[in-house]
């Protein structure tokens, strides 16, 4: 089983995040480090009612900085809200980050959901239908720009004409695309068509197994092997105490029994980076 870490960008500082990522970079069992893509603090198990005026570091700038401060961890945002940036702009950010990281980038994408920050910044979010229509267009534009010499696309939301995105990154045809979410009508069909990695954002192992089966059915309809898509789920480390680690291990073991490929371990900050060592030792015992 694969083990990733995730650190929230909110209510923390650059030195705290840097210390955690550098510690994880030195522990081989941790495969990928993830950030989120928000501008306001968001709800979490430790803060259900976040303060929108609290500190929140921008995810893609932070990601590029961490790429230069680490050497082994793969890295990405889980997930990038597609409505925040034009897909052609995002594609150029992706290739640059892939180059800067030496080919370690994982591209997390999502349709967007945060109404508060979108409204505050005057960024159109739209209805659920509009979000996913726009998301599907963006996936097509980004995938083409990252893999083809030129791209021409005309849709309701995006138009690009004989567009270049150069230079290409070292991962060909493009970095692995992760799509997060569990909606059966819109999200999972998009995962089946465009993604190499699906993230189950929250829920039980039983619910995960059901959603995975739905995803696999969509893959089969498209003639795609379900094994081409890695599956992951968020799990939260409530604290760095032995009890907190023990509860986390039990949850990951239950997901493993349900057939999960990778656990994305959400780390609370501040957290002593030294606590990653006993966590890694406990993870090594999971089959």
Automatic annotation (TrEMBL):
Keywords: Flavoprotein, FMN, Monooxygenase, Oxidoreductase. GO terms for biological process: alkanesulfonate catabolic process. Residues 3-235 form the Luciferase-like domain. One of its GO terms (molecular function) is alkanesulfonate monooxygenase activity. The keyword Oxidoreductase applies. SUPFAM superfamilies: Bacterial luciferase-like (SSF51679). Pfam families: Bac_luciferase. InterPro entries: F420_OxRdatse_Rv1855c_pred, Luciferase-like_dom, Luciferase-like_sf, SsuD_RutA_monooxygenase. This is LLM class F420-dependent oxidoreductase.
């Amino acid at each position: 089983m694969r083990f990733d870490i995730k650190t929230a960008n909110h209510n923390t500082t650059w030195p705290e995040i840097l210390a955690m990522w550098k510690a994880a970079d030195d522990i081989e069992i941790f495969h990928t480090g993830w950030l989120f893509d928000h501008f306001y603090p968001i709800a979490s198990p430790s803060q259900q009612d976040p303060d929108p005026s609290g500190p929140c570091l921008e995810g893609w700038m932070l990601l590029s900085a961490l790429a230069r401060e680490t050497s082994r961890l793969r890295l990405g945002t889980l997930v990038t809200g597609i409505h925040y940036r034009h897909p052609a702009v995002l594609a150029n950010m992706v290739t640059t980050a892939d180059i800067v990281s030496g080919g370690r980038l994982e591209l997390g994408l999502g349709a967007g959901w945060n109404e508060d920050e979108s409204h505050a910044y005057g960024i159109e979010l739209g209805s659920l239908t509009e979000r996913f229509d726009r998301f599907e267009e963006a996936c097509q534009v980004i995938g083409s720009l990252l893999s083809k010499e030129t791209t021409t696309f005309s849709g309701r939301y995006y138009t690009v004409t004989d567009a270049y995105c150069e230079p290409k990154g070292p991962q060909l045809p493009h970095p692995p695309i992760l799509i997060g979410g569990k909606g059966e009508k819109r999200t999972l069909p998009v995962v089946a068509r465009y993604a190499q990695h699906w993230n189950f954002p929250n829920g039980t192992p039983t619910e995960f197994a059901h959603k995975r089966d739905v995803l696999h059915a969509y893959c089969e309809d498209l003639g795609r092997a379900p094994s081409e898509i890695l599956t992951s789920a968020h799990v939260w480390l409530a604290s760095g105490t032995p009890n907190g680690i023990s509860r986390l291990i039990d949850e990951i073991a239950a997901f493993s029994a349900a057939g999960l490929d990778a656990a994305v371990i959400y780390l609370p900050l501040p957290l002593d980076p030294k606590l990653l060592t006993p966590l890694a030792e406990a993870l090594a015992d999971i089959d």
